[in-house]
Amino acid sequence: MTSSIRTCLWFRDGRGREAAEFYCALIPGSRIEATFDIAGDGSSWLIDFMLGGVPYQILDAGPMFTLTEAVSISVETDDQAETDRLWAALTTNGGEESHCGWLKDRYGVSWQVFPRRLTELTLRADKNVSTKAIAAMMKQKKIDIAEIEAAVRA
Question: 72, 71, 88: which is closest to 80 by C-alpha?
């Protein structure tokens, strides 16, 4: 089933299909739904894909626009191991670490990758717990939930 609403990511370097395939291989429950040669000559592509059940689209159409950190894909993982796996895959081959669970992958797409427990500690806990958790998180690049939990207990 296709969705009439999709987040569209503008690619400018001809690697949109490669990126969509990489993302779908990385995130369970993902698949490419359709690809369209919109210019008719292989120079511009529209790729519809599902990423963990969420509809996305890549428009690979040249240098008019650039990706920005103002838009990111947020992935709340089940645990630290899944956070570590995704972080490593997304920062490999030219990706860049940022702060507080943010990174930019080799294609220039920004991601937030963090364990579900971070949300529990920062948004759903009492004010004392959330203040300590946020302070610990602000010192990290990749989220280390054990370190954050230790800071909350201190």
Answer: 88
Q: Which two tokens stand for residue 117?
A: 């427990």
Closest CA to 67 of 25, 30, 19, 104: 104
How is the beta sheet containing 102-104 ordered, strand by strand? 72-77, 110-115, 102-104, 96-97
Distance CA 82, CA 91 (A): 14
**Strand duo 102-104 + 110-115: pairing:** antiparallel
Q: What digits encode the pLDDT tens for the residues 40-96?
A: 888 889 999 999 999 999 999 999 999 999 999 999 999 999 999 999 999 999 999
How does 121-132 read in b/e, with b if 16+ C-beta sit within 10 Å?
A: bbeeeeeebbeb
Question: How far is 36 from 111, CA to CA, in rounded Å?
Answer: 25
Q: What is the pTM of this model?
A: 0.92
**Quick one: tokens of 143?**
């989220």
Instruction: Encode pLDDT of 117-132 as tens digits.
Output: 999 999 977 999 999 9
Which residue has 């689209």 as its token pair? 57
